[in-house]
Design a protein that fits this description.
By secondary structure, the protein is an alpha+beta fold. 22% of the residues lie in helices and 31% in strands.
Length: 140
């Protein structure tokens, strides 16, 4: 994983190294096609799954046991396609996103708090259930 500061220099040099692919061993990966997943949310991302639209399952976790902390980015090599995505946060909450067009060379997919509103809603419900003062702040 690369942090936000390193991202600029990596892209400036034009790094096109394929770190991983959406499907392990996929021969359809287009050289020079990459996707940067940039976590600009307040949530730790524990899983990222990308599959072509209409797939019945989400397949392998592209983070492969690592996590994507707030402010961190990850460079992936992916085939040009439109994808359905499933992103999971540190509480195990799944967020499904449909028909994301990732058919651009060297694209950046920025995950914001508004990208997966279910993360914030689950955190708020958890805070309310535990009766913490943080719940009061989340409601403001």
């Amino acid at each position: 994983m690369i942090n936000h500061r390193q991202l600029g220099s990596v892209l400036a040099v034009g790094l096109a190294v394929l770190v991983t692919t959406a499907c392990s061993g996929d021969d359809n990966v287009i050289a020079g096609t990459s996707l940067v997943v940039d976590n600009q949310s307040d949530f730790t991302i524990t899983e990222v799954h990308l599959v072509p639209v209409g797939s019945s399952t989400f397949g392998d976790n592209l983070l492969r046991g690592q996590v994507l902390l707030p402010g961190q980015s990850l460079l992936l090599g992916i085939p040009c396609d439109t994808y359905d995505a499933q992103v999971t946060d540190e509480q195990g909450v799944n967020c499904e996103l449909r028909s994301i067009d990732l058919c651009l060379n060297n694209a950046t997919w920025v995950i914001l708090n508004t990208t997966c509103a279910v993360f914030g809603a689950a955190k708020q419900q958890d805070a309310l259930a535990t009766g913490s003062t943080a719940a009061t702040q989340l409601l403001k």
